[in-house]
């Protein structure tokens, strides 16, 4: 590594042991299994590039010296996407943070731009991001497209993998002489949601949506089945323009802090909603039709010191629970099309409070469905996998959050094949985030 430091002289290098440990972590500790496997894993050297040319210089040095190379965005992933399994160099993209341009319906960003900054800048021109994770304030554009899959906005705009959700990626290859490759169309799949195993994403072009004033709403229900049917009906209501439709079974709301008294009534299941202004009356009427009532209705605002409603949903739900109870973990599951509500209700009745139901309603493969990030009272690995087996009998499939392997996340086979082929071309020595793509062989 000493020789590599000499080759990279003039770049911002970090090798303090504390910094190496801290910056080599993400939120893998949500999983007790990953915590055992990944604690102590760290890079040997962190490089903070400021330009794409500096990224290429690091890639060339690593290729020539056969040194593993990983990439760090906001480090908000949940299953060790960026944790270096074999040491080596970690590229911290925090300084590659320029918005390159925003024009009608599109924006081009360097990979290190935080999603909050990208969204705020787009709004100044009358646009906004179509979707973002619950970690919007910390996550980067590059980290999101490399490690994310959906998020707030998916109830309207579907998945990141859907055609049109990402317009272009610019990547640097890891070769003796690195290339700068622009990916568009189907080729975007070569690097999208690939954990940085196939190329170093340095620029991202995203579609934008017209900016709306949003209304945050909470609807409460005594009966879980009513809440589930309401969430599905809400997502299917074409007259309501939604950004968020999140169902949280009691006792999950007990873990939440920061909302006014009465918003999360004792013993009741809640649905957290973001609807475009003007749609709040329609939401209220639909909730009443399903036996619920509105406990919160307020304009969405994004300011420091204030917790927006989306930070109680998606992956933040597990984080909110872990702040209170260190003995919980979570699952990530996908529900059967067209029978998702029946499966959701059946799973809630099967497990009760051991597996606290949390469903995110969204567009999947052209129809309204839901995926779930259930919060589980963890007792043992054996019991966790038994719960998974029982969910499978209901048609509920696992997207394994207790594995750092790319193929364990439910990737579609065509995309996986595309990524494997591109990795052989762009990373011939297998140095990019090694150990994360199980099908790779040198």
Automatic annotation (TrEMBL):
Keywords attached to this entry: FAD, Flavoprotein
Record GO biological process: lactate catabolic process
GO molecular function: D-lactate dehydrogenase (cytochrome) activity; D-lactate dehydrogenase (NAD+) activity; FAD binding
Span of domain FAD-binding PCMH-type: 38-211
DNA damage listed as a keyword: no
The protein's name: FAD-linked oxidase
């Amino acid at each position: 590594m000493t020789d590599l430091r000499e080759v990279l002289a003039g770049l911002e290098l970090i090798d303090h042991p504390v910094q190496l440990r801290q910056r080599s972590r993400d939120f893998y500790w949500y999983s007790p299994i990953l915590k055992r496997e990944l604690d102590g894993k760290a890079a040997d050297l962190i490089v903070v590039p400021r330009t794409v040319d500096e990224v290429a210089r690091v890639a060339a040095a690593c290729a020539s010296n056969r040194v593993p190379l990983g990439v760090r965005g906001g480090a908000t992933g949940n299953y060790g996407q960026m944790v270096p399994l074999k040491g080596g160099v970690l590229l911290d993209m925090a300084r590659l943070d320029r918005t390159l341009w925003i024009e009608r319906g599109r924006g081009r960003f360097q990979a290190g731009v935080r999603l909050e900054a990208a969204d705020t800048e787009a709004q100044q021109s009358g646009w906004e991001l179509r979707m973002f994770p619950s970690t919007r304030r910390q996550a980067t554009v590059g980290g999101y497209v490399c490690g994310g899959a959906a998020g707030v906005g998916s109830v309207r705009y579907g998945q990141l993998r859907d055609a049109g959700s990402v317009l272009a990626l610019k990547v640097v290859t890891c070769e003796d002489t690195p290339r700068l490759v622009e990916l568009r169309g189907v080729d975007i799949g070569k690097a999208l949601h690939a954990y940085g195993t196939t190329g170093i994403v340095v620029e991202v072009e995203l579609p934008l949506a017209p900016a709306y004033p949003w209304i945050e709403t909470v609807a409460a229900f005594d009966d879980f089945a009513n809440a589930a049917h309401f969430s599905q009906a809400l997502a299917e209501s074409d007259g309501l323009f939604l950004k968020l439709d999140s169902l949280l079974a009691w006792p999950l709301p007990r873990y939440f802090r920061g909302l006014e008294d009465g918003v999360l009534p004792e013993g009741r299941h809640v649905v957290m909603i973001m609807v475009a202004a003007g749609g709040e009356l329609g939401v209220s009427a639909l909730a009443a039709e399903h036996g619920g009532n509105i406990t919160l209705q307020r304009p969405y605002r994004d300011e420091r010191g204030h917790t927006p409603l989306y930070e109680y949903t998606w992956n933040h739900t597990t984080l909110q629970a872990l702040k209170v109870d260190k003995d919980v973990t979570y699952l990530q599951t996908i529900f059967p099309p067209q029978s998702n509500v029946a499966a959701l209700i059946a799973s809630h009745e099967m497990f009760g409070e051991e597996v606290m139901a949390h469903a995110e309603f969204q567009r999947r493969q052209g129809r309204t469905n839901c995926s779930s990030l259930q919060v589980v009272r963890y007792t043992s690995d054996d019991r966790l996998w038994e719960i998974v087996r029982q969910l499978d009998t209901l048609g509920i499939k696992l997207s394994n959050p207790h594995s750092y392997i790319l193929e364990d996340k439910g990737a579609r086979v065509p995309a996986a094949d595309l990524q494997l082929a591109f990795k052989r071309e762009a990373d011939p020595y297998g140095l990019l985030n090694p150990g994360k793509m199980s099908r790779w062989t040198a």
